Amino acid sequence: MTDLAVQPSNQTSKVSAKGGAARKKQKPFVVRVLKSPTFARGLFLPAVLVFWLISNKMIEDSWDFDSSVLATPREVWDFMYAEISGDTVAPNNLYQTFGISLRRLGIGWVVSMIAGTAIGLGMGLSKAVNAFFHDWVMALLAMPALAWALFLSLILGFGDTGPVWAVVLAGIPFVIVNVREGVRSTPTDLFDMSTAFAVPRSKQIRHVLLPSLFPFLFAAARYALSIGWKGLVLIELFGGQDGAGWTFKFWYDAHRLHGVIGYSMFFVIFALVVENLILEPISRRVFKWRPRLDAPELVEEDIDTNLEKPNRPAPARSDVAGTI
Amino acid sequence: MTQEELVKIARRKELVVRWAARILGYVVVLGLWEWASGAVIEENLLPGPTRVIQTAVELFQDGAVFPAFGSTLNRIVVGVTLSFFIGAAVGILTQNRWFAGFFKDAITIGLTSPGLIWVLITALVFGNQWFAPLTTIILTTFALVSVNVAEGIGTLPKDTIDMARAFKVGVVRRNRHIVIPHLAPFLFTGIRFSFSIGWKVTVLTEVFTAGSGIGYEMRIAQILFRQDEVLTWILLFFVFALFLEKVVLQAIEDRFFRWRKEIAST
Question: Is the pTM above the cut of 0.95?
Answer without folding.
Answer: no
